[in-house]
Amino acid sequence: MDLTKITRGRIESPPRVLVYSPPKIGKTAFAAGIPGVVFLAAEQGTQEFDVSRVPPIRKCEGTGSKHACGWSDVRGWLETFASSPHDFRALAIDTLDWLEAVLFSHLVAIDPKGRTSIVEAHGGYGKAYDLAVEEWRRVAALLDRCNARGMAIVLLAHSQIAKHHDPLTDEIDTHRLKMHKGGAGFWAEWSDAILFAGFELVRAAGTDAVTSTGRRVLHTTPHAQFAYLAGNRYGLPPVLDLSWSALQAALSESSPSAMLAELEALLRDQPDPLPWSGTTKAHSEIRAGMSRAVDRRTMRAIVEAVRSAVTTEKRG
C-alpha cells in the first residue's frame, strides 16, 4: 500500500439513479428523454420510443452448462458498454424486476440437481437468493465501470404494495420495489438516488379527500408516513417533474459550486452577523460551515437555513 495514492476531495461523476413506480406512470418515457441513452431491456416498454436498445433479454432456456443463457447476454452487453468504444452517454435498465426474472431462470437452469424452482434451487433455505445478490454485485461492478467512463446509470423498476413494520409506527401499506428483498436492498444501497414516480396528490382543505392533479412527479425524499421509499445524496428538492431535464437541472443546482454561489447570493446585502433563531451568526461562520460540509445534503441544509433566516429578517 502506497500512502501517496490516498486522495482527497469530491469526485464528480454522472448520476446512478433508481426510479420505481406502479405500472404505466412513465418510467420508460423518463429514461427515453436522456440524451444519448441506450436501453438494456427485459420487457418491451421501449417499442414506442425512438431510442437505441440492445436485443430483448430473454429468460434462460434449458438446463446445464450449455443452456440458452439470457443472463450471459446481460453480462456480455454490460461488459461491452464498459470496455468498448461507443458514444452512449447513459445506460437505462428497463426493468430491474423483469431482469430479476432472467437471473432467477439462470440460477434454476444451473442448479446441479435439476431443481425447478428458485425457492428449492441450490439447496433451498434462501441459498439461491444469496447467489442472486452475488450476481447483482457483479452487475453493479460492470455498471460502475460504465459510470466511470462517463455514463449515467438509470435503473427502472416496478413497485408493489407491501407491509411496513417499524417499532415507532403502526403497520402500514407502503410502496416498495417489486423484487426479492435481497436484490431490492442491494440496489437501494447502491444507487445515489432512489426516486418514487407517481401522480401529484393534493388534499382538499378541511377534509381527508385526496385527488390527483394529473401532474407526474418524482419524489426524492422519504415520505413522513413511510408511504414509499426514496432518498438521495444530492440534496434535491422533495418533488420534481417526471422528466430527465427536470432532474438534470436539479442536479446542476445541487452541485457544490452552485450551492456556494447560491449561499453568496443569499448573504449579499444581509447584515453581518445575520439574525439566527434568536441569536446571530457571522457570515464567516456560515461560510466555514459550508466548507466543512461532508456532503451535498449538509450543504443544502445550510443554504435552506440561511434562506429561512434571510426571509425572517426581511419580514422583521
Quickly count the domains: 2
Quote the average pLDDT. Answer: 89
Count of helical stretches: 9
- Secondary-structure arrangement, i.e. CATH architecture of the largest domain: 3-Layer(aba) Sandwich
Number of strand elements: 12
N-to-C SSE string, H for helix and E for strand: EHEEHEHHEEHEEEEHHEEHH
Largest sheet, strands/sense/barrel: 10 strands, mixed
Strand content: 15-25%
Give the fraction of residues assigned to helices: 25-40%
Map the helices and strands.
Blueprint: E1 16-21, H1 27-32, E2 37-41, E3 52-53, H2 70-83, E4 90-94, H3 96-109, H4 127-148, E5 152-164, E6 172-177, H5 181-190, E7 193-203, E8 210-219, E9 231-232, E10 239-241, H6 244-253, H7 256-267, E11 274-276, E12 279-281, H8 283-292, H9 296-315
Parallel strand pairs: 1-5, 1-7, 2-3, 2-4, 4-5
Antiparallel strand pairs: 5-6, 7-8, 7-9, 8-10, 11-12
